[in-house]
Specification:
Number of helices: 3
Mean pLDDT: 88
Largest sheet: 3 strands, mixed
Strand content: 5-15%
Shape: globular
Low-confidence stretches: 134-141
Structural class: alpha+beta
Strand order of the largest sheet: 2-1-3
Length: 141
């Protein structure tokens, strides 16, 4: 999880949205589990895969904390609410955090982790791992 306390571009209509990156890139089982867990919540979040698009200009899949795991073929889900106007500026203060939204995302991540921990076997890698722009090279087996 990173940047889960605000709305993407500070848009109020993003109040129920969380972006998932990577959930379907390596393991359809992990992706499907994630979807089921979210649907089981009392107030499901809107899961967006816009930042997961291989054509996305930000290339989040290849450049965040989860990237080294994904490059090794380990199924990943990266949760974010996207960038906003204060990103990496000192104007980004605690008063701008949407704590209820952040708590709901935390609940989704916890529920997903609990389901993974208590429902063996772990999700299998079902697709080959694409090397990103920084890793170069061919597809890994």
């Amino acid at each position: 999880m990173d940047m889960v306390g605000r709305n993407h571009d500070d848009k109020p209509e993003q109040g129920n949205t969380v972006y998932l990156v990577g959930s379907d890139r390596i393991s359809t089982e992990l992706h499907n589990l994630s979807e089921r867990v979210n649907a089981s919540l009392l107030a499901p979040l809107e899961l967006s895969y816009e930042l997961n698009d291989p054509a996305d200009l930000e290339q989040v899949y290849y450049r965040s904390d989860h990237a080294s795991y994904a490059a090794a073929g380990i199924p990943v889900i990266f949760y974010t609410t996207g960038l906003h106007s204060d990103y990496h500026f000192n104007s980004d203060g605690v008063e701008k955090i949407l704590f209820q939204k952040m708590a709901r995302i935390g609940s989704l991540v916890l529920a997903t982790g609990m389901r993974l921990a208590t429902s063996p076997p772990r999700p299998r890698a079902t697709t080959r791992v694409a090397r990103g722009p920084r890793h170069g090279g061919p597809l890994a087996p």
